[in-house]
Amino acid sequence: MTADGKIANANRAVSSFGSRRDQAHLLQLRATADAVMAGARTTDSNPITLGPGPAKYRRLRLRRGLAEFNLRVIVSRSGTVNPEAEVFQRRFSPIIILTTRRATTGRLKELRAVATEVRICGAEEIDFPRALRWLRQKWGIRRLLCEGGGELNDALFRAGVVDQLHLTVCPRVFGGRTAPTIADGLGAGSLARAAQLELVSARRHDDEMFFVYRVLKK
Hints:
Blueprint: H1 20-30, E1 35-39, H2 40-45, H3 55-63, E2 71-75, E3 95-99, H4 105-114, E4 117-120, H5 128-139, E5 144-146, H6 150-159, E6 164-169, E7 196-205, E8 208-216
Parallel strand pairs: 1-2, 1-5, 2-3, 3-4
Antiparallel strand pairs: 6-8, 7-8
């Protein structure tokens, strides 16, 4: 995020601004995960595949006893995922879509044509504890890396299913009251409901700061 807490500018035209070191850190994290997850707008608005990246990261996965390619999970409450997004053009690993009964029959049909599996996990909102149990039982996912966006991050924090937060602070200020942050959505209604974090590590690389927090369970 920027120094003022934004993950994109107000019109979302700029959403990638970290250094090469930050991008490498992202791929290193992917190399530890069984699956990588993102929200629909993140996958629609960025030319991303949610894959492990270059061969050296795939070899790192194999050395750790993981599959060469991670599974990919996309979240959309209403099923409004662009079936022509870049992520669907690369067929190296299964793509799972989590949605709710808000998704229309037509949208479900479109998504089932491009995804490996579409799972309905709730009526109006994603039931994340149930969804994550299903991902573990059906797909063997034990470690899941979520890469945003802000509304998805917020939903995961509110559901109490986040274990760690890896946060890179970049030396920029975007401003803009409508610019997204790392956790948008409904948010915590009181201080007591806010996610409580414990700092695990902090390191500086050039003008960026890399933080790792552990989420304290209530």
